[in-house]
């Protein structure tokens, strides 16, 4: 049922075959899949609840041993898997494949799953509703739930999700000439339409990389550079997942005079958005932009201190660097206070904020709090975070040393 376990071509053939006679497709998603997986559900999935409850103790079954080992990766918590390791994918598949099997053992044969996304082909709207209910109940048996915002019943036939890529690839850019903004705008409008139809920013992500052109960057005329950079920033404020792309594919590639003040305004707006909607990643990217390009945020100390309350490690480390550079003593004090509070908290909290701890604490304080490895690195002068001392700007296709105008990317380890 999973694309990782079956050839994608076979799955595509199954879906096309299942569409015959189907009037609706259900698209469903598990809410916070990895963070919500209950470790005790591992033996439930392997042996069934009644049987697994008879076999208590880690020596009684492999499922119990795996349950315990999974807990130990998260300080003995029974809820959630680590996001990233391949082992987490395997463990999640133990539980989700069991749910797949139980669904297919009933009346729901035409169902496919990709990680935590389900598609079910239904002959009637009522059948589609029954599937949504059955899936929701089955997930609850394993202590999970449906993401209601991403669960929908759609009429068939529908265009393939890959059609957006085909539409963008068919767009004709003029050859052997500098692009005008009208061309860029038309392409971005097409990508925006695809994103809105798809409900995700993926087509816009693809469009920004396409404009950059890969090994042979597309050339934009001066006005197109100015307008495109502003439009890309506007889109990133509407779709914050685009923010990580801007530095490499827009700012560095289409740098021009007058961009820095607009970047500062953009970064300020991105921070405000991140605080309002609790998007620490957006704030971190905004802080990265201002640090790399030596910008100043149009925010008072009180607004910056609100960021500290979000308690995100990377964001606070970047904010600390910003506070130091711009002599924002109150902001620096707020972050330092938070870091020092960690001395009295448990090891899990220290581990969550290890980079902040490393940046703030002295070698002696690290040793006194059981952070011996970090203390050794501190003693050796190791840096996880540093910015270049000298800048480089591009003039045509050449690079020359200059006063900081377009700095190199930060060196991060």
Please summarize what this structure is.
With 413 residues, this protein is α+β, with helices and mostly antiparallel strands.
Tell me the number of helical segments per DSSP (H or I, 4 or more residues long). Answer: 21
What structural class is derived from the secondary structure elements?
alpha+beta
Strand content: 5-15%
Order of helices and strands: HEHHHHHEEHEHHHHHHHHHHHHHHEEEE
Count of DSSP strands? 8
- The radius of gyration computed from the alpha-carbon positions, rounded to a whole number of angstroms, is 26 Å
In round numbers, the mean pLDDT is 87
Major sheet strand order: 2-3-1-4
C-alpha end-to-end distance: 38 Å
Could you estimate the helical fraction of the residues in percent? 55-70%
> Major beta sheet, specifics?
4 strands, antiparallel
Give an overview of the whole structure.
The chain is of the alpha+beta class. Helix content is 56%, strand content 8%. The protein has helices at 8-19, 33-36, 41-47, 49-54, 62-72, 86-105, 125-141, 163-169, 181-198, 202-212, 222-238, 243-251, 259-277, 280-292, 301-309, 313-325, 329-341, 347-352, 354-360, 363-368, 372-379, and strands at residues 24-29, 111-114, 117-122, 152-155, 385-386, 391-395, 398-402, 411-412. It has a four-stranded antiparallel β-sheet with strand order 2-3-1-4, sandwiched between helices. Strand 6 and strand 7 (398-402) form a beta hairpin. Helix 3 packs antiparallel against helix 5, helix 9 (181-198) packs antiparallel against helix 10 and helix 11 packs antiparallel against helix 12. Mean pLDDT is 87; it is low at 1-6 and 389-413.
